[in-house]
Amino acid sequence: MNQFTSIQSPLSVSQTMKLVLLALLPGTLVFTYLNGWGAIINIVLSVISALIFEAVAQKLRSRTITTALSDFSAVVTAILIALCLPPLIPWWIPVLATGFSILLAKHAFGGIGNNIFNPAMVGYAIVLISFPADLSLWLQQPVGGSVSFNEAIGAVFRGGLTVLPNWDVLTGATALDQHRTLVLQDSALAEIESQTKGLFAVANSEWLNLAYLVGGLWMFKKRVINWHIPVSFLGTLLLAMALHKLLSDSPLSLSVNLFGGATMLGAFFIATDPVSAAASVRGRIIFGAMTGLLVYLIRVYGAYPDSIAFAILLANCTVPAIDRLDIWLNRPGNGQ
Amino acid sequence: MPDTQAHQQHSVRGGLYIDPLPFGEIEVAPLPAIAHIPVDAKSEISVSVGDTVLTGQPVTTCNDQIVANHASVSGRVISITQNTVSIQSDQLDTPYLCKVQSLHNKNDYQQLFRSMGLVGLGGAAFPVDKKLNSLEPTTLLINAAECDPAIYCDEALMQERSAKVIQGIEIAIVASGAKKCIIGIEDNKSKALEQMKAHLPDHMKLICVPAIYPSGAEKTLLRLCTGKTGALKENDTICFNVATCYAMYQAVSKSRPLISRIVTIVENARVRNLEVRIGTPVKELLTPLERSTSVVCGGRMMGRVVTQDHCVDKRTNSILLHTDNHPAATPCIRCGACEEVCPESLLPQHLYWHATTPDTAKLQELKLDQCIECGCCDAVCPSHIPLAGLFNSAKRTIEKEETEQHKAALAKYRYEKHLARQSEKTVRQRKQLDSKTEILKTTNADNEAKKALIAKALQRKKNKRAVETDKKSDRDSTL
What we know:
Chain A is an all-alpha fold. Chain A contains 17 helices and no strands. Chain B is α/β, with parallel strands linked by helices.
């Protein structure tokens, strides 16, 4: 008998995280379809190690272990990392990534609510820089499923994809990789597009991005996320490309930019992490725009084919400045 | 038809919409067995234990700071403490005949309201006469928007007694001397709106405001009705609640002091509006309470938990019950939900960060002083952080700091003045001494001037000694 229940009570952190997990489901299924058993192994490894690291960190910080594990934020972080990693990498890479993410990016900064960098992206960026060779080997999509479970387990626990006898036949470039290679070979954009064309955008990754988009829109409908960051992120990404095309010629096509790489995952699931984004509405719009611009710049001029992780970490660095700027520009309490 | 009802053209961002619950007619609560009349600790109690009092008889005297309090039932005074006068009711409710006062000017009204014990019935219980005395308003704003989504007492009052409310507003216009009168009413109170419209004279303007909490906060209401921002005082506006206006009507037309008020009681999602005598124990109005049940007075959003032995006082606009299950606060995740509902366009997420320290300069930059503590941010916080409470305590800390700083500055100013006086004195003495030495040097020993000086000095010394002995003998004699 609580008179306070008629106020629609806000989603608690653990409810929010459960909804995020549900929203990630379609993307996870498509990712697993494209990459086979390796994807599942990565997810399982990441989630288990994340829970262990979370428990260890709580113990070290003399906090109750159960409350921290029950808020599901560690699970979300682990799955986001697993969705960035290629299949059939040595087992210690996902473990290391979640370790850096939970212990360094999250708990060393004071736990949930105090991390200034997006934990999942810190973990991923560290292993991406440390093991570039392992992290650039993707299976041909969607034949990733043709690797049997036993082969996959063997590869993961005996040093990665290269232990398989026919590994060079199995690997293939992702859409963004292929695009990048063709651009470096000075192919015409029309030719590139025809080679990478899928049903409506770029082959394979279009379905992955579509699944993330569906999950993202569902989260928006459920009021788990606000429109500010995804809209300003995607808007700026498109605007940057349009300007580039007007002024000279952008090497990226619209379909690759929107449906290649991890665009939708970044826009709806990663950049929207409230803790490491700017705190106010206006600030979040600036933050989204900053991320979108950085994604575009790194995709076009950077050394890595995709750039979501670096763009978000760089934008995280600007958050205190964005917050200050927002307070300074729009004096709070002016009644507007 | 004159333009008496205009839809509001101004809007306020933020706020919360909460579905209202249905409620019935105003019921009159039975007289309490013992009424515990709350009195101000500073006021002078004019009855003593054993006295027989009549309903409406003053039990305290009033002055320009405190209004009078009255016996809400007839009976015998059984105990007096610093804060309460308890009266055992004889259940006869014999009225006390107040002498009718003639009202000629504003002062007469203020005097009457003071002696009738009138305070603002919206919840703050600020003395009406003090409010009237504080400024010469051009606009009278009548708050007909309920101050909390779980309170229905004003709505019920307007539905049933709108003619008397309007007469009370007329009195408020005369008493305040305002030239313009605006009534702000929430647009979901259709029955109350109809009743008010039916009795509305031409010179009052009724404005519908959206039924979004906190439309009933006076600052928000002013902005919704007139588009003006800032405090009421800055806009030469005075604001009274409809229940206060009804009390004015009772005081002026019926010579009835403030001895009862309408209280909304929400119990098991059932809403009742009771006309309750001041001093009635809350327990008598409710079904038997469990121990774990908390009694909340003042509404769902800004209410505070009181003990189960609480008695209805002039500010008790509602009584809610709830079992205490407020979840523990978890860290802020900077989601910004609080910012979206803040009616004052503040940034509660930043305020929270600086209020925990508290960092005075940053809080002032973020306009903490504009926070009306409506509690919208609390209601939407996914981490269940009691933001409004934190902001309140941060305000208190800053206030304290400021008083101390002011005190320190004053002390410093005094000390500096003291030092300046001292050095001035030294310089003056030095000058006198120098001039004397000069005279001594330039004149001979047998010089008349020198002799005169010495004689003068001796005389001074003698006088001083005489005074001192006098003083000493005085002291001795007193000892």
